[in-house]
Design goal:
The complex is a heterodimer of chains A (529) and B (256).
Chain A: E1 2-3, H1 12-17, E2 26-30, H2 38-47, E3 53-57, H3 68-80, E4 85-86, H4 89-96, E5 109-111, H5 116-129, E6 133-136, E7 153-156, E8 164-168, E9 173-176, H6 182-189, E10 194-195, H7 206-212, H8 219-222, E11 229-235, E12 241-243, H9 260-264, E13 273-280, E14 282-283, E15 287-294, H10 298-310, E16 317-321, H11 323-333, E17 342-349, H12 351-367, E18 373-376, H13 379-390, H14 392-399, E19 404-407, E20 410-411, H15 417-430, E21 437-440, E22 445-452, H16 457-476, H17 492-514
Parallel strand pairs in A: 1-3, 5-7, 6-7
Antiparallel strand pairs in A: 2-3, 4-5, 8-9, 9-13, 10-14, 11-12, 11-13, 15-17, 15-18, 16-17, 16-21, 19-22, 20-22, 21-22
Chain B: E1 3-8, E2 11-13, E3 35-37, H1 39-53, E4 57-66, H2 70-80, E5 84-89, H3 100-114, E6 118-122, H4 133-141, E7 145-154, E8 158-165, E9 168-175, E10 178-182, H5 194-200, E11 205-208, H6 241-250
Parallel strand pairs in B: 1-4, 1-6, 4-5, 5-11, 6-10, 7-10
Antiparallel strand pairs in B: 2-3, 7-8, 8-9
Helix pairs in contact in B: 2-5, 3-4
The chains are: A alpha+beta (529), B alpha/beta (256).
């Protein structure tokens, strides 16, 4: 029997849970499979279709209807206040789309809690209604991590929970809420001689950076989020609040219990919502020098990097820009660098340390066919020198106005970098694509900005193919399919390749233990089975 | 020939703070609110430091007028490299009536007492946006002024200063001594590092009162009221172009 005009359920989620694909234009409802609720039961009673298959047509956008959607909204409003619950079109649209190239799906409702207690109650409500929970920080991710693929409630923890809870100068640590971004934290501490060095491209939420295991340009010296997080306050799907290293704990090291902090770092919202992070701070370096040097080939540049690391020079930043990227930077910022691979370097330390480090690296670069070694100490001169690197992304977009970029992210042992870069460049050329490269070469991590016309699905497909091939090669070379951006949706298949079935199954078991109803950010990192 | 510089620093509400008006509508809430050094004063201190590093200047004295907490601002300047500080104490309850005219008189007196060659200030403070102190100080001292400086160079006869003005950039030459005020593009200030913060604790800071300098504190300006900017009204969606034109006419934006 076909029924038209039947109001569709708020829980597109519920249907997916029952095993129906949310992307099919026709949704099949089998009486008895869905969890009993007022709608299904009534329907079955009226039609007496206890065990028949009923098909009804429904458009895919979820719409608030008489009972279950309204009920959920009311319960949420009772916790966070009516002004902090929204299902307005532009609000949900914004909360489903991050800064990556993949189109996101909007959640059904967005809530803005003001405390960890409220987050806990929100999770309890969602659990009771069996509705997905998607944590949201600044929405600056690149892998579709916030896309509400099964609908549900997006929990925006950054809008109202935006305090720096503690700064401990002498212990070099701070406790922050999700609304604090890394630049906000650094502004706050700028007069105290401290800084938080992890610097991904975006001004991301520090807690969000914990969720994705983020990293930045100075990981080679200061580490990634994983090395700079001491403790996390996490709300689980069932509303329990835990502290991963102990309640209020912030020692530099600990052997107490399982390392839950490590578990949640990089879990991309699939295990719980991070409501505060205890992070490590560092001393602002006494002296900073910047240098730029060009090389005939990528191999020369990487050899320079390897030798520098072997000499234990404590480099703060080592960035590789390939010749395509240099051309883009020249055109965009009006510079005149030779169009060859370049290293952008930064040295931190006392004045004498910086001087001696610079000398050492200048010599190593010269030994490896390095060109002119430009360097600067003054703040503005360093800024000017690094302009090319800072504006790299915009320079790439400007190469083809109107295009978007599929930004890849792989990480391999440093020795494997030249081969991977060469193979990738060949692949890009073969597919007729433009793909400038920027690499945190000290970590063996590099990004290609594969440009595509958003109106050309074939070109996007080619970009994805090149990206996947690159990730597979990286895995084969002993690396990883994602160095810093996370898996999100786009790399789930690659994760299976990297870990093998047993590895992923262990992840599934852990998720099953902490999130039995599969509510936390569904459709990310790995599939259900 | 090394010069002596007096740098003025003001403790203001941090630029990132959301300002709230006091219930009596005569000022803004300052209690419990984060304060920091006026950003233009940071630029002034930085410029003095660069002159010192270029061996043009051999002593930087930082002065701040304010309550006890002004010491934090002085310590920040000392951590950036200033040599010693002067704290002109103004009790908290007198801060509301302490105005640029008083600051100028204090700075002029100190400039004479300390026999400085350059008084370096920020072009304005971000709390009152007055942009008066440098000019009035120069006038009281009868010294030349180079305000809104975006570049300062030493010449044989004195200084060459490039100023940011509405029409573009103006280059002037002054003799010394002179009063200068820093504009945004003069430099990018350094951060205070932990070792320097520790060293700063040992640098000398002298305390005094305006009366010690013969400055009378009677206010010349009375703040009548402080109000929030008007709340943004909701927009109106128009149905078509004719509707839009009619509305524009109604609101007086179109006379046709």
């Amino acid at each position: 029997a076909v029924m038209r005009g039947v109001p569709q359920l708020l829980s597109r989620a519920r249907l997916v849970r029952a095993g129906f694909s949310a992307s099919e234009p026709v949704l099949a409802v089998q009486a008895g499979i869905l969890q009993p609720d007022k709608f299904t039961q009534t329907f079955v009673q009226i039609r007496g279709l206890k065990s028949s298959k009923v098909i009804y047509q429904a458009p895919l956008t979820a719409v608030d209807i008489a009972d279950s959607g309204k009920q959920l909204k009311q319960e949420l409003e009772a916790i966070v206040g009516p002004g902090n619950v929204s299902s307005g079109e532009s609000v949900v649209l914004q909360h489903g789309q991050d800064e990556g190239p993949h189109p996101g799906k909007s959640p059904d409702i967005v809530v803005f809690p003001s405390s960890t207690g409220e987050v806990s109650e929100v999770c309890k409500i969602c659990t009771r209604h069996n509705v997905p929970i998607i944590p949201y920080g600044t929405g600056t991710g690149l892998e579709g991590g916030i896309s509400a693929v099964e609908g549900g409630v997006c929990v925006n923890v950054s809008k109202n929970m935006n305090k720096i809870l503690q700064i401990h100068q002498e212990d070099f640590s701070a406790v922050v809420q999700p609304g604090i971004s890394r630049e906000m934290l650094n502004q706050e501490m700028r007069a105290d001689g401290l800084w938080f060095p992890v610097d991904p491209g975006a001004d991301a939420s520090v807690c969000g950076m914990c969720a994705t295991g983020a990293s930045g340009t100075n990981a080679v010296r200061y580490g990634t989020m994983k090395e700079n997080c001491l403790n996390l306050e996490v709300v689980l799907a069932d509303g329990r609040i835990i502290h991963t290293a102990g309640i209020g704990s912030r020692p530099k090291k600990s052997s107490a219990g399982y390392n839950l902090t490590s578990l949640f770092l990089g879990s991309e919202g699939t295990l719980g919502i991070i409501t505060s992070a205890t992070i490590c701070l560092h001393a602002i370096p006494e002296s900073v020098a910047a240098a730029v040097v060009g090389f005939p080939t990528v191999q020369n540049a990487v050899d320079t990097v390897v030798m520098t690391l072997q000499c234990s020079v404590p480099m703060a930043r080592m960035e590789l820009l390939d010749e395509v990227q240099m051309k883009a930077c020249n055109e965009y910022s009006g510079l005149s660098y030779p169009e060859t691979p370049h290293l952008f370097l930064e040295f931190h330390g006392s004045e004498s340390e910086v001087e001696s480090q610079t000398e050492t690296v200048r010599d190593i670069a010269a030994d490896n066919e390095g060109g002119e070694f430009q360097w600067a100490v003054q703040q503005e001169d360093r800024t000017k020198l690094w302009t090319a690197r800072h504006r790299a992304y915009y320079a790439d977009i400007a190469l083809r106005p109107g295009c978007r970029s599929l930004t890849t992210d792989v990480c391999v042992p440093v020795s494997a970098l030249p081969d991977l870069v060469t193979a990738t460049k060949a692949d890009i050329a073969e597919n007729g694509l433009i793909g400038p490269m920027v690499g945190h070469v000290g970590d063996g991590n590099f990004h290609t900005m594969l440009l595509f016309d958003p109106a050309d699905p074939e070109e996007f497909r080619k970009c994805k193919e090149v990206a996947n091939k690159m990730a597979r090669s990286a895995i084969a070379l002993g690396g990883t399919c994602t160095g810093e951006h996370g898996v999100g949706q786009g790399k789930m298949a690659l994760l299976e390749e990297q870990f093998g079935k047993d590895g992923i199954d262990v992840m599934r078991q852990i998720k099953g233990a902490l999130d039995p109803q599969q509510l936390m950010n569904p459709g990310k990192v790995f599939s259900r089975n | 020939m090394a010069l002596k510089v007096l740098v003025g620093c003001k403790r203001v509400i941090d630029y990132a703070v959301k300002i709230r008006i006091k219930p009596d509508k005569l000022g803004v809430v300052t209690e419990g609110v984060k304060h920091s050094m006026n950003p233009f004063d940071e630029i002034a201190v930085e410029e003095a430091m660069r002159m010192k590093e270029a061996k043009l200047v051999n002593e930087i004295i930082v002065v701040s007028c304010g309550p006890a907490q002004a010491m934090e601002t002085i310590r920040t300047a000392l951590a950036m490299g200033a040599d010693r500080g002067i704290h002109v104490e103004i009790p908290l309850d007198q801060m509301d009536t302490f105005q640029p005219i008083h600051v100028s008189k204090v700075l002029a007196k100190l400039a004479e007492q300390e026999k400085v060659d350059i008084v370096m200030l920020g072009k304005l403070a971000i709390d009152d946006d007055s942009n008066q102190t440098a000019q009035m100080t120069a006038s009281l001292l009868n010294w030349p002024q180079g305000v809104f400086a975006s570049k300062i160079d030493k010449t044989d006869a004195g200084l060459e200063i490039i100023r940011e003005v509405d029409g573009g950039l103006e280059t002037i030459r002054t003799t010394l001594p002179a009063v200068l005020s820093a504009d945004l593009r003069l430099n990018e200030p350094r951060y205070a590092t932990l070792p320097n913060i520790m060293k700063a604790k040992k640098k000398k800071v002298v305390k005094m009162k305006p009366a010690d300098l013969g400055v009378d504190m009677a206010p010349r300006i009375q703040v009548v009221s402080v109000e929030d900017p008007p709340v943004r009204e909701a927009g109106q969606t128009v149905s078509d172009v004719d509707d839009l034109v009619a509305k524009l006419k109604d609101k007086g934006f179109s006379s046709a």
